[in-house]
Input
Amino acid sequence: MKLDLDFRTKLVMTIVVSFVLLFGDLQRSYPILGLVLTFLPYVLLLIERKISKALKGSAVMVFALVLQYYGGLHAYSGIGASFVLFFSIIVLRMGPGIAMGEYSLLTTTMSDLVASLKKMKCPDGLIIPISVMFRFFYTVKEDYRQVKEAMYLQGLVTSQFFRQPVRMIEYRFVPLLLCLSRTADDVAISATTRGMAIGQERSSISKSSLKWLDYLLMFAMLAVLILMIWS
Output
């Protein structure tokens, strides 16, 4: 079962989770609520069937919690304790926000993103670069995967890097640079053919709208924000 949240809801959740956990006041005053916000992105990823990312992220959070509450406070002293606490705090305060942003991007199509930004009254000068940029990075990711697969067929795997470093770099980055040059032109042309121009109305097949679950989650995020300021 997928939640089918609007991008505006995901954006609000990303901002609130990142802001609240980064400051850390809420975790000290309401530790249970802090744990809920910490694992919220990974629960959402699990619901969207991003099982690998959800389990890996949750394992990292649990490991950081163990380090913070047991390893850093009881088992170590001096420089070791400071390093362990610093690592755990950085992971616990920044990790959920990054995971929430990743969830927002992975579960939002480009048409839904553009439609949501339009309803937020964002200017075309901002919407067009964002849509082009995300299409570019997605295409680069696919090109990089294809380059890796081609290298694997030639027997050039990661374990061969120290044996043939020059060949590994040449066969990986030269094709990728050529793909980047071609992809930049293709994405720019794609934006033009899709009718994306500043100051012009554009139709969309996306049915981006706020549902009752969106309003409920937005209200919950607002309550968390007020509670953090109050605490």
Notes: The chain has a mean pLDDT of 79. The CA atoms of residues 132 and 187 lie 6 Å apart. The two ends are 36 Å apart (CA to CA).
